[in-house]
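Backbone-to-sequence.
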């Protein structure tokens, strides 16, 4: 079992949403880093390995869809969770069929997001230590 904390990169151009997501995931025991857009996220992903990516879709300077498509083409990629206010069934189906791990529509139940991430990690053999 790996004792290091699960690293999550949270990407959203809206500071309030980004911070809300980070606080909720940190309460669940994840260690989070923020990025304000897809371009910054790609730079961070090139410098450090993250276990999980949580990203919005609509952002300036490389939107979330382009970020996700780039990551899906990589051999060693993090788990990918999309949070969006764009309720478009075709888009959701496209992203899920491409291989993202899940999509959440705003307003997001952050507790459910944390539970789903932890369950996926556990199914892959990465156990998340319970939060205090």
């Amino acid at each position: 079992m790996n004792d290091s904390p699960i690293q999550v990169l949270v990407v959203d151009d809206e500071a309030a949403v980004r911070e809300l997501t980070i606080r909720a995931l940190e309460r669940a025991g994840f260690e989070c880093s923020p990025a304000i857009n897809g371009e910054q996220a790609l730079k961070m992903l090139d410098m450090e390995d993250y276990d999980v990516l949580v990203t919005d879709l609509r952002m300036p300077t490389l939107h979330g869809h382009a970020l996700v498509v780039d990551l899906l083409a990589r051999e060693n990629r993090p788990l990918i969770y999309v949070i969006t206010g764009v309720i478009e069934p075709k888009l959701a189906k496209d992203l899920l069929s491409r291989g993202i791990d899940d999509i959440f529509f705003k307003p997001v139940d952050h507790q459910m997001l944390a539970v789903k991430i932890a369950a996926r990690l556990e199914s892959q053999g990465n156990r998340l230590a319970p939060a205090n």
